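Worked example

This section walks through a single chain of length 443. The input is the sequence exactly as stored; nothing has been trimmed or padded.
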Amino acid sequence: MKVLQALGVAVATLAPLATSLITFTGGSGISYSIGVPPGSTISQSATGGLYFSITAPTSYQWVGFGIGSQMANAQIFVMYANAAGNNVTLSGRNGGRGHVAPSTDSTLQAGLTLLAGSGIVGGNMVAYVHCTTCKLASAATSTSSPFIAAWMAGSSLSSNSVSQSINQHGDSDYKQVTGDLTKAAMSTDSNPFVASTTSGSGSSSTGTASSPSSTTTSGSGKGSHGGDSSESESGSNGSSGSSGSSGASESKHVSAATIHKYDEAHGIIMGITACILFPSGAILVRLVGMPWVHAAIQLLSFVGMIAGLGLGVKLAQYRELLFNNTHTILGVVVVALLLLQPFLGIAHHHLYKKHSSRTAVSHVHIWYGRSLMLLAVINGGLGIKLAANTISGRTAWIVVSAVMGTLYIGAILFKRKSKSGVSRFGSREKIVRNGQADSTEAM
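Given that input, the structure is written out below as tokens.
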């Protein structure tokens, strides 16, 4: 009879393990699990209930979990030890543009509750979380919903503040997974990470741990390890304690170092092209009077712009920023419009040689080119802002743009003064040398 009673208690204790949860692992000793309660309204467009757990050794400075395929625009949850060292703090943050420190999200934070069983347990930081302000990055029934994870080893942050600054994780301390949400459908809307030992039904508890302050979301560490609760944990790591994954698979991801290289290459190529080469081609043709010099420089600029666009599109895809901001949209538009400029230039040159004067096509080519150069410089500034460049980087862009703009305007004024001087001495204003029009044909 005692054996049967013990068996009944054991079955009741292990019952939550039968609850559908998807699990995966991170760094050494780190595990995660996710569950969607019945009746949850959570989706890509609506917030709703979601349960997740984060478990990691106290040797980690912080451990994060995120909803999304990339850090950019993801909902991120960062766990670290509290000031007393007997509990955990959970901070809800927004991934923003990605690859910069995520910012505290007060709206997301308001829906986070650390459940019973959370705290510092057996040398592990444990966060059993119920979220009511979460959104998914896929449909609620997706079999490949994206999630991310990151971690940073080091001394404890020992902070109760949800806005605590954190160090950037290493390139290898990061993981992307896709989870089958059909395997995360829970049977009850209750804490799936602990089991009641006072009921033979095996139902789980929804006990909510107290928060030590109004600025933190912290578990009390109660449970079988805390001695103050009738609930016991389902293993030291809860239902996410598996050494592998269940219902989730790792996705290939591009390292932060690779993305940084794309960022640098795109910025350098586009910066030189838009801010230096294009204006230089327009300046030199007015000063040296050789249209083919102008054509060669602008052709080189055009090649650079195409290469920069390719790098930019790939970078935007990596950061999930393609066509959801002004910089990427305007950048593609400017490059597309540039496709017409070489043909306008060729037509302008031949008509100028034929008539020894500017035609309507000439003025279209000149002002069309000026407009595109201005748009390219403006869009470069938008790109610098989007990349959260340093103050020195922004200053350099402004200074170089101002200098090149001044030189271009100076070249225009110099040419007009030169033409005016020739005209006063009775010479022809339109001159053709060796069968080629002089620099008055150029922009």
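What to look for: Confidence is low (pLDDT under 50) at residues 1-18, 196-243, 423-440.
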